[in-house]
């Protein structure tokens, strides 16, 4: 069955949420290798801009809602997090520990799309 929405698997950040991601700290740690892959398609991103934080849009197409979040590199070891805005997104989607969140980087429109719908990966 064709989902009608083909995406590049290298542009997906997938994370099973941990207790730390959903607690009061207000940030979600992201898988480094997946973020580095997505960064190859982001325009004008530097180490300095990542340390300061980059404001990005996250689109929930099912609920027709958009969120603003900050993608940030926390230190020289390139530990990546979603910071400011993560709590709003987490509460709105009622995310909890153990949930799997998939974000697709739509580099043509410069935003993340929450993959909470059927899609197909582009074959290689």
Structure description:
- The longest helix is centred in the N-terminal third of the chain and has 8 residues, at 32-39.
- This protein has a seven-stranded mixed beta sheet.
- 20% of the residues lie in helices and 34% in strands.
- The protein has 124 residues and is of the alpha+beta class.
- The mean pLDDT is 88.
- Pfam families: B3 (PF02362).
- Its main location: nucleus.
Helix-strand layout with pairing:
Blueprint (H helix, E strand, L loop, with lengths): L5 E2 L4 E5 L2 H4 L5 E3 L1 H8 L7 H6 L1 E7 L4 E9 L6 E3 L3 H7 L7 E7 L4 E4 L5 E2 L3
CATH topology: At1g16640 B3 domain
Oligomer: single chain
Helix content: 10-25%
Give, in spatial order, the strands making up the sheet with the most strands. Answer: 2-7-8-4-5-6-3
- What is the CATH architecture descriptor? Beta Barrel
Separation of termini?
18 Å
| Cα Rg | 14 Å
What structural class should be given to the helix and strand makeup? alpha+beta
Beta-strand fraction estimate: 25-35%
Arithmetic mean of pLDDT: 88
């Amino acid at each position: 069955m064709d989902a009608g929405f083909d995406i590049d698997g290298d542009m997906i950040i997938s994370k099973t949420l941990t207790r730390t991601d959903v607690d009061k700290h207000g940030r979600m740690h992201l898988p480094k290798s997946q973020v580095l892959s997505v960064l190859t398609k982001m325009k004008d991103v530097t180490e300095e801009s990542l340390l300061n934080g980059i404001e990005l849009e996250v689109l929930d197409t099912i609920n027709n809602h958009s969120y603003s979040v900050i993608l940030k590199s926390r230190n020289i070891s390139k530990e990546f997090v979603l910071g400011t805005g993560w709590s709003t997104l987490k509460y709105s989607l009622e995310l909890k520990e153990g949930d799997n969140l998939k974000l697709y980087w739509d580099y043509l429109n410069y935003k993340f799309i929450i993959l909470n719908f059927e899609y197909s990966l582009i074959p290689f």
